[in-house]
Structures are given as C-alpha cells and as structure tokens.
Amino acid sequence: MAEKKSFLMYTTWAAFIAKLPDEQAIQLTKAICNYQLGEEYSIKDPTVKAFFETVVVPEMDSNDKKYQDKVDRIGEARKYKQADIDVKSDSNHDEINMKSDSNHGEINSDTDTDTDTDTDTDTVTDTDTVTVRPSDVKHPSGVKKNKQKEKPVYFPDDPELEEAFQGYIENRKVMKSPMSSRAIKLAMNELEKLAVDDRYGVMDRKKAIEILNQSVTNGWKGLFELKTRGQPQGIDWSKV
Description:
Elements: H1 11-18, H2 22-37, H3 46-113, H4 159-174, H5 181-194, E1 196-197, E2 202-203, H6 205-218
Antiparallel strand pairs: 1-2
Helix pairs in contact: 2-3, 4-6
C-alpha cells in the first residue's frame, strides 16, 4: 500500500472517547494510532475493546482500501496520459516535417509566378453598412461570470454518509417536496436518534446510511427505523 500521511477520525469516535475516563480514552486513542501505523495495541476494558474492533477497525480498513484504490486509479491514469503524450509528440513531429516541405515548395512557386502589385484600396463610406456579429464583441476582462451555487455539506468528515444524505435530499426534490433549511436540520437530528448505537451512545454511521437509503428506496418522505412493517412510524417531513 502507498504510504499515507493522514487518516480519518470520525466524530462518532470522538463522541465515544469524550465520555471515557482519561485512562481508557488514552488507551483507545493510542490503539487507533498504532493500528494505523501497523503496530500492536492493547485495550483492557472490554467495552472499549468491542467498540474499537467492531466500529473503528472496519471503518479504518474500509478507508485504507478506498485510498489504495484511488492511488491505483491515479497511477493507471498517468500511464495512459504519458502514452498519449508520446503518441501526440511523434505525430506532431511528422506533421511539422510535412508542413516544412510543403511551405518550401509554396515559397519557390510564389517566387516564380507572383509579380503583380496590389494597388487596390478598400474604403468605407457613409452609405456602407457594417454588420457586427455577437461573436465579434469582446467582453471586458473584469466582468465576472455567475458561478453555480455550491451545495452545502452536512457530514464533511464522512463522504459515504454525506452522499447518502444528499441523495435523500435530492429524492425529496424529485418527489416535489423539497426540504427547507429547518427541515434538513430536523432530519439530521432525527437521523442521529434513529441510528444511535445503544452500546456506545453514538450514531452508527452504517445504520444511518441504511436508514437514508431505506427512505429513498421506498419513496418515503420521512426517516424511520430500519425494517419496519406496515405503515412506518416517524416524523412526516412533508408537514415540516
């Protein structure tokens, strides 16, 4: 694997660590760092150890795999780009040689045959009509173009959860029930409650993603518990 100079640490981890006594918090933090560096770690408390092995480690492994896949894609793209540059370089070299030979022939031909002197002068009178096309008008360099409004980011430290939440918001627009800023804030609070991991008192990001995808798949406007039967019980965001 390519060497990494940084790694992600989710807010759900920080929330769990903040509730721990100092000794356990230090053990968990050191374990996270050691695991990333490929070194041995030691966690004595069974609850903390369970959180590390069932929540932290899978997310770190997933991020490492994504990083390596990205490195591989960049490497392949560079190879293709270099190969394309080499091909274009050879092609341009041949084209320059061909143009050089062609221009040499044209110069010799013009020298032999072009003996006329152009004495005509073009003038524009008051009765002439000059047509100016829109493409001929140059806009001042200082004029700023309207930039497309950037989408707000709701989960900046979790790309997968952010993508799922943005998909939920877009689906509401498709259903002709767009969400206001207040509705989005309420939805985030509801999502955190529904996806909380009772063992650790923090939001389970994977469960949160499944809840969002569940609403999109079933065409629900609101967010509800997973695997509900019959009419889902929860907040109807269409009324917000």
